[in-house]
Design brief:
Blueprint: H1 10-14, E1 20-22, E2 38-44, E3 60-67, E4 70-74, E5 77-81, E6 87-90, E7 97-100, E8 104-111
Amino acid sequence: MLENVYVGSADVDAACDRGWLLGHFKPADDVRHSDGVEIKWGVHPRGDERAQWVTGEKRTALLMLISGRFRVELPGRSVLLARQGDYVVWGHGVDHSWYAEEESVVLTVRWPSVPGYAVPDQGLEHPSGGSGVAGVHMKYQKAPRSDESR
C-alpha cells in the first residue's frame, strides 16, 4: 500500500476546506500538506465575491478559469477571465479581490503556502446563499471596481 499517495475529487474535497486541496493547513502527515504551494478548486455562484481585499500579499498567485466568467480586481486594474484557460498571475505586494460574474469554477495556485490570509468565517451568508465552496458561508461586501478589463 502506498501511504504517500492521495486520490480524490476536487468537487468533493474542496467542500471540506473552503476549496483548498493542498497547503500548509493540511495535517503534517497528509501528502497534501505543503509549505511551498497551495492549490484551490473554487466553485462560485453568480455574484459571489471575496469578503475583503487581500492586502500585504507575501505570495505569488496564478488564478485560472475552468468555467464561467470571473473578475479579478487588482489595484487600478480589473481583469476579466471569460474563456476557459484564461489566467492571471500576480506577485508579492499586489493586493487583490475577486467577483464571479457568472457561476464559475477557478483553479488557484499560490506559493509559498503561509498562514494569515483566510477571511474569518462568521457564519454569515451571502444574500444569494453563495460561499465560493459548497456548504461554507462567509461574509461578503462589495469590492471597488475599475472599468478596465484585460
